[in-house]
Structures are given as structure tokens and as C-alpha cells.
Sequence to fold (184 residues):
Amino acid sequence: MVKILPPAGEGPSSETVRSLASSLADALQAEQFNVEVISDEQRTAREHLAQNPSTHHIITGLLVDKSSGAQVTVYTQGMASTKLLKADGIARLAGRVLEYLGSEEMLRLRLKMQDVFRDLSALEPDKKFAAQIQLGLYHLLDKKDLDEAIHAFEAAAETEKDSAVPHFNLALCYRLKGDVKRSW
Fold:
């Protein structure tokens, strides 16, 4: 569930902001996201996420300015940081939001990380690489298990032979293990 929380009030830019909210909702619904535009002046985006566990994302901070383009802030359930997205027009901003919600960063939420960890081989090839990277980061950052992180990053390097991402992470893991020779 994605909820869009446009700013309250009336003014010269309010019609443009409503248009942005509507465009975002339409674009997300076309990609099979369950979307709701809400107006809740009583709660912040974080409070709303805390009280509604079925809401995965809140899109707020909608702003449209002829000189600087359009921007939104995305709050995500289970993530401490927010993501500020900007573009030079409403259509491009909608595309950036879709790209972000479909990114590797969001893969963990959509695939339920514990299920991904059970059987990576069942994933489609394009999602497998992202899941392997997420698994490596999970072991590296959350579990502090360098050997498991290395195993996941090596698998990702096999899946996407031309990608530098797993090799960078492998170098970091080897450096943290004190194996300077393998970190180069």
C-alpha cells in the first residue's frame, strides 16, 4: 500500500500539487501498486506509518515549482531514512518514484527478506542479483558475518559478471577481515 499525502491548504500552486498527486497515483496504479491519496493533517508521515503497518510507503512533501521542477519525499515502513526525489517535470518525477519503488533498495520489502533467503534459486534472474546483493549487505551490516557476506557477494558476481557492485563489496569484506591482499 502506497499512500500519497499532499499538503493541505489552498493557494496558487495547490492545483499543480493536486495534479502531481493525481499523476503519481495514476502511474503507481498502472504498475499494480495499491494507492490511496489521503489528507491527514493530524499525523506526520512517520506517525502514519507506525499506526498503519499495512502501509509500505507514504509520499509527501509534494512541491512543484516552474524554476526547480517537482519533488517528493518518500517514507518507507522499516527504513529510518527518507528518499527525496526530484525531476524537471511531473511525468519525469512519477517515473523516478516508480523507479525508486521498484529498485533493489525496495526489493527486500516486496519479497519479504526471510523468504528470499530461503531459496534464491527460485527467483527470476533479474531479481536474483538484487537479492544476492541484499543478502550480502544483510550479513555484512546486520549480522556482522563476513564469511556469509562474502559468499553472497561471490554468488552475485557470478550472476552479473560485468557488475562492479559485488566486487566492491567483496573488497570491503576482505579489507574488514584484514586480508589486504585480497581486498585489491
Q: What stands out?
A: The mean pLDDT is 81. The two ends are 43 Å apart (CA to CA).
